[in-house]
Specification:
4 helices, 161 residues, Beta-Lactamase, disordered C terminus, alpha+beta
Length: 161
């Protein structure tokens, strides 16, 4: 069983996030930290919310889907339901969007700013059943830290570009 040190990741995330830097800078470093801190992960990044769905934000991994309609795939469902989706086998997920055919499992965590859906953190793995309840808890805590550090300040931070 893989063990990710979420306490260490949290401390590193706390250190690299800076509300005085551009949001893209912060999200880029957050994606890199997650990607390189977790074993057996082939994609980690952000999709940002807009009325019609989600659009690709900073990430680490192979090129990805640029737009995801609300409710479609794991990311779209997490956004629509505003609830974490932890999928053991993406090939069994109704409407799964295959951006990388090597992905076997996925976890998607909604991100909120001022009480509204702002986007999602999406992490894929080439291994079925990669994400445990402990991973979900640790990643949800990282997202809460990200929300606290980046969205408690100026409204301008909410605009990704």
């Amino acid at each position: 069983m893989m063990q990710t040190d979420y306490e260490q990741m949290r401390a590193q995330m706390e250190a690299i996030l800076d509300e005085n830097l551009h949001l893209v800078t912060n999200l880029s470093n957050a994606a890199a930290l997650i990607f390189y801190s977790m074993e057996k992960v082939n994609w980690a990044g952000f999709y940002l919310s807009e009325e019609s769905g989600l659009y690709l934000g900073p990430f680490q991994g192979k090129p990805a889907c640029v737009r995801i309609p609300m409710g479609k795939g794991v990311c779209g469902k997490a956004a629509q339901e505003e609830k974490t989706q932890r999928v053991e086998d993406v090939h069994l997920f109704p409407g799964h969007i295959a951006c990388d055919c090597a992905s076997e499992s996925e976890i998607v965590i909604p991100i909120f700013a001022n009480g509204k859906l702002w986007g999602v953190l999406d992490i894929d793995s080439p291994e079925k059943g990669r994400f445990s309840p402990e991973d979900q808890k640790g990643l949800e805590q990282l997202v809460r830290l990200l929300e606290k550090k980046l969205f408690q300040t100026a409204e301008s931070q909410l605009i990704p570009v």
